[in-house]
């Protein structure tokens, strides 16, 4: 082989090596790009998983709170339906009996009324305090405004109908007269 041929072969080998080096660098760059794209996709998927997990945790918390509220106020509808019965009991107990038979009947009604009140109390039902208290529109409904001596302005003078609350929820506000 001549010197010229040797030189041509060397140039060809060098060109092939350069081409192989460039191909390797290109492949390496592509692998790095694919790896970066995979890392970005993995980060997006991790963020999505965290959001879904947070949503699920919020759902579980809301469900638990709704169950607790339902259990806490489960007797609300029954108690609301019984409030007129309590009012009628109280009106009946205001009657002054004259005969011994009527007195005996009234005594029995008082016993049933106390038992009824105790049952309501055990369910979390409370009477809203009124007379002498300062008027609060969250607990009281003012149906009259009067000028009375011995009472401050905006103080409740008389209760016209009892109000009740179940735990921390108002079932019925008290109807009251308020001092002007």
From TrEMBL:
What assembly does the database describe for this protein? Answer: Homodimer.
What residue ranges carry the coiled-coil annotation? 28-62
| The protein's role, per its UniProt record | Participates actively in the response to hyperosmotic and heat shock by preventing the aggregation of stress-denatured proteins, in association with DnaK and GrpE. It is the nucleotide exchange factor for DnaK and may function as a thermosensor. Unfolded proteins bind initially to DnaJ; upon interaction with the DnaJ-bound protein, DnaK hydrolyzes its bound ATP, resulting in the formation of a stable complex. GrpE releases ADP from DnaK; ATP binding to DnaK triggers the release of the substrate protein, thus completing the reaction cycle.
Set out the biological process GO terms recorded for this chain's protein: protein folding
Task: Show the Gene3D superfamilies listed in the entry.
Answer: 3.90.20.20, Head domain of nucleotide exchange factor GrpE
Annotated protein name in UniProt = Protein GrpE
Principal subcellular localization: cytoplasm
UniProt keywords (A-Z) are: Chaperone, Coiled coil, Cytoplasm, Stress response
SUPFAM superfamilies documented for this protein: Coiled-coil domain of nucleotide exchange factor GrpE, Head domain of nucleotide exchange factor GrpE
Q: Which GO terms describe its cellular component?
A: cytoplasm
**Compartment(s) of residence:** Cytoplasm
Q: Name one GO molecular function term.
A: protein homodimerization activity
- Highest taxon, organism lineage: Bacteria
The UniProt record lists the keyword Coiled coil: yes
Can you tell me which family this protein belongs to? Answer: Belongs to the GrpE family.
